[in-house]
């Protein structure tokens, strides 16, 4: 009962949570440190397990950039994963199954209960090489918060919400992994990102509060266009992005006939604002865990054993 009360008080839309979550970076750090105290032993175990598998990482995400783009990943699960993603778009009514209400972006198209350990989406997720790469950046074995499909499409009118520069509120540091289900060109509204280092400069210059959406006209004087990275590439391109540290936007699709589809993974540390203080009770993919799994996989899924 106490945990439920605290979760409600610290939610981003509650008075207390809003003061610390939708706030400048330094203010948010205070609440992150407090939340970490609830998971002190767990975080220590996650750091130790991350160190144990660290050498297995197949790539490194540079800390000063906060993102990395790969166009040569050859994991065998990826082709099947992308074929299944495109099949969802071809065969299902996206308006009925989507979770959000944005005109330009549909999310929630892949349902956790439809996934199994045999799914290519989950086989890729549980690879030691992938878990190690993500954990090396985050400093511990994280919890997977989302496995999803994100479908971007044309929307008329001025850019709004996630089409404007912003930093995601969920944590002080997180990783989202996007895998392109089809080629992405400029007309498809590609993900555009500013490095973590330059994002620090921009946050200071704007006195940025998390949750705010920033028009290009305020960004350009601090971080000009040549320092903004537009991520285009062929099918199966993999983008690792810290969307809490890095300003970014996406889904500015220019043509009504164009669209973009990506597989999306979100990795969060237990103290993150999006997580319940009793996160093992609510982890969305813990149902996939079993006792014979390696420890890093059980931790990643948020299992309680």
Could you walk me through the main structural features you see in this protein, from its secondary elements to its overall organization?
It is built from twelve helices and nine strands. With 305 residues, the chain is α+β, with helices and mostly antiparallel strands. It has helices spanning 2-9, 15-21, 25-37, 40-53, 77-91, 94-97, 120-125, 128-138, 196-206, 216-219, 279-282, 295-301; strands at residues 67-70, 105-106, 143-153, 175-180, 192-193, 229-230, 238-241, 248-249, 259-268. The mean pLDDT is 95. The chain has one domain (2-301): q2cbj1_9rhob like domain (Jelly Rolls, Sandwich). The strands form two sheets. A six-stranded antiparallel beta sheet has the order 1-7-4-9-3-2. α4 (40-53) packs across α8. The radius of gyration is 19 Å and the shape is globular.
